[in-house]
Structures are given as structure tokens and as C-alpha cells.
Design brief:
Layout (H helix, E strand, L loop, with lengths): L1 E8 L5 E9 L2 E7 L7 H4 L2 E4 L1 E6 L1 E2 L2 E2 L5 H13 L2 E6 L6 H17 L15 E3 L22 H10 L4 E6 L6 H8 L5 E3 L6 H10 L3 E2 L15 H8 L4 E5 L7 H11 L4 E4 L11 E5 L2 E6 L2 E4 L11 H11 L3 H8 L1 H6 L17 E4 L5 E6 L2 E5 L2
Parallel strand pairs: 1-4, 5-8, 9-10, 10-11, 12-13, 13-14
Antiparallel strand pairs: 1-2, 2-3, 4-18, 6-7, 15-16, 16-17, 18-19, 19-20
Helix pairs in contact: 3-4, 6-7, 9-10
């Protein structure tokens, strides 16, 4: 048993003096206390849930679309030791055959692989995010246009079968032929996110009413919000059931837009993602995303035509960047923990510090420098 005291991020979504009691792999208790009970060091320590990244492609020199157990294991290990203790890695727009292989490899790895300290991969990798192939060619971004196809229920179900039920989010452009029908018919079996789209306000609104209650990397790969054409962004702001993703790497979205978005949507509907690619955690150089060459310098990753190709920043650093941009620490933590967990149906197992939950816990200093990562009750990274 271990007792950790400090400023605890509680279920009231802000930091309070308290303690977290860990017994084995689980949290036994979370309790508030008077501030004078804490030592000076404890009072300077933040205790928060492990982060939840529901949309990223790779890191540490590997891509989820490599389709190997080695890649999945390396990706999960990097994420876990950098504060993201629950992941749903994303596919790219590839051929049906490739996607079937990637989904199958991911599901098999989750069942069999073990990470450092005996952590089961299945306790870290909790889903798959299908980004493509049901998108708009005009707003393809870094996706390969050769493999874009019309929304197809049969293909989606085949992919889910290969993934052994692990697909938790499906990106879709609702204006494409067959998209609205697929959303209406399959919302009970899948969660849909409006993505890589040219859709107008009316179509986006209809898609949300049909069950597409999520928007992939808001502002990126979609028409801008204007006073006469509010588009996806306006429709999402109106629909209170819809959550929106934001990449806060300092590249994809301006700091002002980040702060304004939190005000418009409210902290309860914001989901921070990294959208990271294989160069994350690596040196500058030449890499790949979805089979396309990418040049990385600092946080900037570009295709040969100058298109931004995902990010080179992990979710913990994105959260810290959001805080530096002016988002409150409480709202930034919520957007990287409880909200993404809820968006993909994992709210009962991760994203909050509650008795009975798996002990996925981060300790950070007052500047949010990461001091310690605890996964399933075991220390997997320590600053000491």
C-alpha cells in the first residue's frame, strides 16, 4: 500500500489538498484534507490522472500503421512513460487490405504483449481510432488520396471484426455519398467523428443529430467558421452533445484560438489530442506518415508539398502548452483525461482518480514538469 499526498485533481475537476491511497493495481481511496496537513513539498506537488490520448499515429520512431507487435509495444511504452497511460492509436487512409492487417495486428498485440514492469499492453492500449478512408479528397490533409473511398458499412464491420471490437472512433466526412446513411445505421455500434470534410453547416448539423457527436482536430482539414458559413465549427458549437478535438502543439492552432475555443465550447466538451507521428521523441530528420515522406524540424512536421503532417509532440507536452497559452490548468487536465475517456466510452475505467479505478497516476511539480508516472500501481517513470 502507498499513500500519496499533494494537490489532488479530484472528481470536482480542480486541484484540492488531499491524498490518494494505492493498494496493488487499484486506487483504494481518494480523500480531501486540510492544506496545513501537507508538507511544503507535498503542497507543491500536483497529483492527476494518467492522460488519455484517443488520436495519435506514432512516436519513438514507430507508426501504428507499421502493423507489427514491435511497433505497438514501442508506441505504448513511450506514451506510458511520458504520462499518457491510456491510448487509442489511429490508422491512416490506406488500402482495405492494409487496414485489415493493421487492425488485426493491433488487436493481437493488445491481447499478448507485456510492457515494462509487467504492465499488460491491453491495459494501456484500449482502442483504435479509424482516421480514414471515409473522408473528403479536397480536405485530405496528410492522408493518401489514392485510398480514399466512399463510406461502406460492410468494410467498416470487416475492420471491426479484424480489430476484435477495438475500433472506438470512426472519422467520416458526412457530405460524402453514403456517409449519412452509415452514421444513422451504425451509431449504436460505432462512434463517429466528423473529419477531413468540406461539409456545410446544415449537413454537419444533420450528422450530429444522427449521432456523430465528435469532431476530429477542430479547425484542421475543414472549412473555417465565418459569419455566413458557420460550417462544422458552428454546428459543433451549437450541439451540446458534441465534443471537439484540439491539437495544442503550438503549430496547428494559434494560442488565441485555443483560448477562445475553450470559452465557446466549455471545458466539458474539449478533448486535447497529440495527433503525433513517429518523429515524436526523436531527433529532427526524415520520417514517414501513412507511407508518405515527412520532414520534421522541432515541432513542425511537413509533407513534401508543405502540408502539416500530424504533430511531433506528445499529449503531456500539448497539455502543458495549452496551459502556457492561457487555458486554466484545471481545464487543460480535464481535456486530456476525463473528456477523452468519455468520448470513446472509457469513462468508467480511466480519466479520473476514483476509488476502485486502476491506479494510473501522474505526479508533477508546480510548472507541470513530470515527476513520476504510476501505471496500474507500479512506478514506470521517476524523476529521482
Amino acid at each position: 500500500m502507498r499513500i500519496i499526498r499533494g494537490m489532488v485533481y479530484t472528481d470536482r475537476m480542480y486541484f484540492e489538498p488531499g491524498e490518494v491511497v494505492i493498494d496493488g493495481e487499484r486506487i483504494e481511496n481518494v480523500a480531501r484534507c486540510e492544506s496545513d496537513v501537507l508538507t511544503e513539498k507535498e503542497a507543491q506537488t500536483y497529483i492527476l490522472p494518467g492522460l488519455v490520448d484517443i488520436h495519435f499515429h506514432g512516436c519513438a520512431g514507430y507508426d501504428f500503421c507499421d502493423g507489427t507487435a514491435e511497433a505497438v509495444r514501442a508506441i505504448a511504452s513511450y506514451e506510458m512513460t511520458h504520462g499518457t497511460t491510456t491510448i487509442c492509436p489511429a490508422t491512416m487512409t490506406l488500402s482495405e487490405e492494409q487496414l485489415l492487417g493493421i487492425c488485426a495486428a493491433g488487436a493481437e498485440a493488445a491481447e499478448k504483449e507485456v510492457l515494462t514492469e509487467g504492465i499488460a499492453l491491453k491495459d494501456v492500449m484500449r482502442g483504435i481510432y479509424l482516421e480514414g478512408p471515409f473522408i473528403s479528397e479536397e480536405k485530405k490533409g496528410a492522408q493518401n488520396p489514392a485510398y480514399i473511398r466512399k463510406p461502406d458499412k460492410e468494410i467498416l464491420e470487416k475492420l471491426q471484426q479484424a480489430a476484435k471490437g477495438m475500433i472506438r472512433m470512426v472519422a467520416i466526412a458526412p457530405e460524402e455519398d453514403g456517409a449519412m446513411e452509415l452514421i444513422k445505421e451504425s451509431t449504436g455500434a460505432f462512434r463517429f467523428s466528423i473529419a477531413h470534410t468540406c461539409t456545410d453547416y446544415e449537413t454537419a448539423k444533420a450528422a450530429m443529430e444522427a449521432g456523430a457527436h465528435h469532431v476530429t482536430h477542430l479547425y484542421n482539414a475543414m472549412p473555417p467558421f465565418t459569419h455566413r458559413k458557420p460550417g462544422v465549427i458552428g454546428a459543433a458549437a451549437e450541439n451540446k452533445e458534441t465534443k471537439v478535438e484540439l491539437i495544442c502543439d503550438g503549430i496547428h492552432v494559434h494560442a488565441c484560438a485555443v483560448k477562445v475555443t475553450f470559452k465557446i465550447f466549455g471545458a466539458e466538451r474539449m478533448v486535447l489530442i497529440s495527433d503525433s507521428m513517429m518523429a515524436t521523441g526523436m531527433e529532427d530528420g526524415e520520417y514517414a506518415l501513412g507511407g508518405q515522406p515527412v520532414t520534421v524540424k522541432g515541432n513542425l512536421a511537413l509533407l513534401q508539398d508543405g502540408t502539416i503532417a500530424g504533430s511531433a509532440t506528445n499529449l503531456y507536452d500539448c497539455m502543458r502548452t495549452a496551459i502556457r497559452m492561457g487555458v486554466s490548468k484545471e481545464e487543460a487536465v480535464r481535456a486530456a483525461t476525463a473528456n477523452p475517456a468519455q468520448a470513446v466510452g472509457l469513462e468508467k475505467e480511466c480519466g479520473m482518480l476514483l476509488a476502485g479505478r486502476r491506479a494510473d497516476i501522474l505526479l508533477a511539480d508546480r510548472d507541470f514538469a513530470l515527476l513520476e508516472v504510476i501505471k496500474s500501481g507500479r512506478v514506470v517513470k521517476s524523476a529521482q
